[in-house]
Amino acid sequence: MNPSSLAVHCQNVVKIYDTGDQKVTALNGVNLDIALGELMMLVGPSGCGKTTLISVIAGILDQDSGYCEVFGEDLLNMSNQHKLNFRARNIGFVFQAFNLLPALSAAENVSVPLIINGMKRNDAERKAVAVLEQVGLGARATALPSELSGGQQQRVAIARALIHSPRLIVCDEPTSALDHETGHNVMTLLKDVALHNDRALVIVTHDARIFDFADRIAEMDDGHIVEVKGVGVQASPASTSKACTPVAAKP
Amino acid sequence: MNHIAIKMLMGDRGKYLGIVMGLTFASLIMTQQPAIFLGLMSRSYSFISDVGLPDIWVMDEKVQFVDDIKPLQDTELYRVRGVSGVEWAMPMYKGLLKARLADGTFQTCNVVGLDDATLIGGPPVMLEGRLEDLRRSDGVIVDIDGARDKLGKPSPMSGGKPIALKVGDSLELNDRRAIVVGIAKVTRTFQSQPVVYTTYSRAKNYAPKERKLLSFVLVKAKPGQDLAELTRRIRATTGLAAYTREEFMSLTYEYFMRNTGIPINFGISVLLGFIVGAAIAGQTFYNFTLENLRQFGVLKAMGTSNWTLLRMILLQAVLVGTIGYGLGVGLTALFGYSMRHTILAFKFPWQLLLFSGAGVSLICVFAALISILKVIRLEPAIVFKG
C-alpha cells in the first residue's frame, strides 16, 4: 500500500502492562495498516488487545516498542504538547458508554473539541447546533444527556467526534449499548457523515450485526492480528471464542 | 474551559452543596470562635481603653494586669507630680466592693473612684445625668448593663426580668448609702461586673479601711514630651511601674493569654473547625474529582492539557472556597449582629477576615492538590475502560 494513502501504519507494536505481580502482554508485535477512506473493524475476544491497540493508534497510550505512525506522524516520539495538539486536531472519539459530560447540554458537549482547539465558546456552540442538525438532533441541542435516549446520546457523541473534522475517528463498541435498529442507524450515520477519502474510521466491536459496514475486519487474539479480511469474508473461529460474538458472514 | 469546569461542579448539586457546606462550616468556626476570643480578650483591657485622657498609668511595680490592684500610699501621687515632664497626675481608686441590693442579696461591683476636682478617668459615654453630678452627696454613676441586670431591682413577677436602676435610685455599698445620679455606657469588663463610678474620696469611704488605697496614678505628659522617656523617668524617680496606655493594655492582654486557659480552649475550637472543615471539604472535593475522573479522562483524551485541567480544578476549588468563605463570614457577622445586645463578647476586626480567608484558602489548596495529583496521573486510556 502506498504510504501516502495510509491513515495508520503500525509495525511490530508491543505493549506490556506491568501490574506489579505479573506482566501482561496486551500487544505482541501487531502489524496493521489502515488506508484513508477505510472503515476498519477490530474484532476478537475480550482481553485480546483491541482496546489497547486503538489507544495506541489514538495517541492516548504509548507502546513499549514497535512503530505506530498516524497520518505520517510517529506518535511515540512526539512531545507531550505536540501529541495533545495532534489528538485535539486529528482524532475523534466515540465510546461505548458515550462519555458525555452529564452537566453539559448536547450542544455544549458537542462544542468541547472546538473549545479545546481554541474556538470561542459562542462560535463553538453555534457550530455544534449545526452538526447536531446533521445527526438529526437539532431540536434537542439544549437537552442534557440524561434527557436523551441511548441512541440519541450516541448520536451526540458522534457529533462531538466529528465537529472538529478529525481525520481519524476511533470508536469503541459504538453500538453495543443500542438496540439493533438504533445501532444500524448509528453505523449508517458514522459511515455517511464521518467517512471521507481523507479520513479513516477504526471501530472496535463485538457486535456482529454491524460487520456489514466494515471495509476490512482485523481479527485479534492474544495480542496479535490473526487475520485481516476484506468485505464478505467469513471470520475465523479465533474471533468467535470467549466473550466474542460470532462473526456473521457478509450477505 | 472555565464554563465547563463550573458546570461540572454545579451539575452535581449534592456534592457541590456538600463541599460548600463543609467550607462554610470551617469558615464559620474559624471566624466566630476567634471573634468571641478577641471580644473576650479585648474586655480584659476595656477598662484601660475606656479611660481616654491620660497618657501614662502609674502603679505598684508588682501589678501584672489591670485588676491586679496593689494599692499605693496617697503620697505617691505627689511624687509622680514632681517628675519633670508631667503635665498633671490624678489619683484613681479601683476595687471590688459588695453592693447590697433591694432584695437583700449582694453583688460584687467594680468601684472606680475619680479625682474629686477634675473627675478624670470617668465613663466614656453618659446616657443619663452628667459626670459632674458625682459631686452631689452620695452620688454614683452606674453602667447601663449593670443597672439593667446585676444591680437591677427584683421583678415583681417570679422569674421576670429585673427592673433597671434609674437615676434617683439608691443602693448600699459596704453598708454605705449610694444614690444613682447617672447611667453610663462603658465597655464590658472581662468579669462582667457592674461598674460604679464615684469620687476618689467617697470611694475611700466605701472601701474597707486600709493604710493604702490609691490604685493608679493617671498621668498626662506635657506637650511634646516623649512618652517612653517620661515612663522611664517616672520609674527611676518613684520606683513605681509606669506604662503608656498601650503598654498597660498589652501587659493585661498578655497576662490573660499566659495565665488563663482561654487561648488554648479557643485555639482547640478553631483547630477542630479547621480540621473538620478540611476533612469534609477536602474529602467531598476529592470524591467529586474521583467521580468525574472519567470526564477528565475524556477531556484529556480529546487533547486537553494537564495545565488546563489543573486550572479547571483550581477554578472549582476557588469557586466553592469563595462561596463557602462568604457564607461562613456572613453567618459569623450575622451571629455577632444578633448578639450585639447580649453579654456575649464579640470582636470582628478585618484581620480576622484575612485569618479565616487564609484558613479556607489552605483547605481549598489542600483539596485541589490531592484532586489535581489524581487527574495529572490519570491515563487518558481510562476512557475506553467499561
Automatic annotation (TrEMBL), chain A:
Gene3D superfamilies: P-loop containing nucleotide triphosphate hydrolases (3.40.50.300). Keywords: ATP-binding, Nucleotide-binding, Transport. GO terms for molecular function: ATP binding; ATP hydrolysis activity; transmembrane transporter activity. It comes from the Bacteria. InterPro entries: AAA+_ATPase, ABC_transporter-like_ATP-bd, ABC_transporter-like_CS, ABC_transpr_LolD-like, MacB-like_ATP-bd, P-loop_NTPase. Residues 8-247 form the ABC transporter domain. It holds the Pfam family ABC_tran. One of its GO terms (cellular component) is transmembrane transporter complex. CDD domains: ABC_MJ0796_LolCDE_FtsE. Belongs to the ABC transporter superfamily. Macrolide exporter (TC 3.A.1.122) family. This is ABC transporter ATP-binding protein. It comes from Candidatus Methylobacter titanis.
